[in-house]
Amino acid sequence: MKIVKTIAEVRQVIKEWRKEDLTVGFVPTMGYLHEGHESLIKRAVTENDKVVVSIFVNPIQFGVNEDFDAYPRDLQKDADLCEKNNVGLIFNPEVDEMYDESFLSYVDVDKLTEGLCGRSRAGHFRGVCTVVTKLFNIVTPDKAYFGQKDAQQIAVIKKMVQDLNMNLEVIPCPIIREKSGLAKSSRNSYLTEAEKEAAVVLSKALNKGLSLIENGERNATTIFNEINNEIEKEPLAKVEYIEIVNLEALQPVSVIENSILVAGAIRIGKTRLIDNFIFEC
Ligand code: AMP
After folding, report:
1. 37: CA distance to ligand 1 center in Å?
2. Order of strands across the sheet with 271-279?
3. Whole-number pLDDT of residue 149
4. Is the C or the N end of the chain the one with fewer CB within 10 Å?
């Protein structure tokens, strides 16, 4: 496994692989890898001849008051996890390799980015779409793997790939959880033991919502209230949003008639956590 820091080195490796007609899978990450990332990597390794993992904490997808500086980093541990899983190449650029001082070009996806996480994180998806476009152009993968934990991100990237004729397949992968139900996240490392216990409330509340739907409830307000009330029982948790939206347009629904995404974000102390489920009908 190679670890490289420059775009030119990635291009050289990909060129060699392409000469041998090898397929390339790609897993973009911000590092501090856990079993959630590992599940994407394992899937990519089974479906492609070679796999590239990028590890880059992308400054332009963080708001001014967000945790860019504090975001956890551990390249050695990440490299060990990648090596163990037969990753062929890690791309770990410095910020100025991706954005030199003359950088001016951004990628925006409209509408899909207005609600859910987009409402409270202005500019977040613009930063994500821009870096993912750059990474796709650098790595030129056949398939790229994303976690369903960031459900809005998947919808936005799929649309961007379709609209901008990017020549690759986006593969969504299921959410990996702790035994408690808490969705695995690099940001869970910010939580104290007490906060980690409290954080379980998000998956627990979403599960309650899912049970209601599975038992035939179709009124979105009733489902919202069930989830919201459950979270409000936890004194350490503060709801940022809970939304029930259709799967294609990510627009709020009042009655569940088609497939939906139920997504939420909470704050536990200073830590922001997200989770969701999809109900198909
Ligand atoms: P991040 O490093 O947080 O930017 O995540 C990189 C990729 O891993 C994204 O596609 C995430 O959706 C995915 N991911 C993060 N956590 C999980 C999880 N618990 N289960 C599945 N995928 C995940």
Report:
1. 5
2. 237-246, 260-268, 271-279
3. 98
4. C
pLDDT in tens, 152-171: 999 999 999 999 999 999 99
Average pLDDT taken over every residue of the chain: 98
d(CA 84, CA 38): 10
Atom 10 in ligand 1: which residue has the minimum CA distance?
146
pLDDT one-digit tens code per residue, 99-110: 999 999 999 999
Burial of 99 (0-12, 13-18, 19+ CB in 10 A): middle
Q: d(Cα 159, Cα 167) in Å, to the nearest integer?
A: 13
In order of 21, 101, 254, the CA distances from 224 in angstroms are: 50, 45, 10
Q: Is the dihedral of CA 118, 25, 32, 106 positive or negative?
A: negative
From the CA of 184, give the closest atom in ligand 1.
19
Give 220's contacts (C-beta < 8 A, 6+ positions apart).
244, 252, 253, 254, 255, 256
Centroid of ligand 1 to alpha carbon of 20 (angstroms): 30
* Ligand 1 pocket, residues with Cβ under 6 angstroms: 29-30, 36-37, 39-40, 146-147, 149-150, 173, 175-176, 183-186
Q: Whose CA is nearest to atom 12 of ligand 1?
A: 147
Give, as one character, the DSSP assignment of residue 121. S
Atom 17 of ligand 1 has which residue's CA nearest to it? 36
Long-range contacts of 228-232 (CB under 8 A, 24+ apart): 230/201, 230/204, 230/205, 231/201, 231/202, 231/205, 231/264, 231/266
3-class DSSP state for residue 251?
A: coil
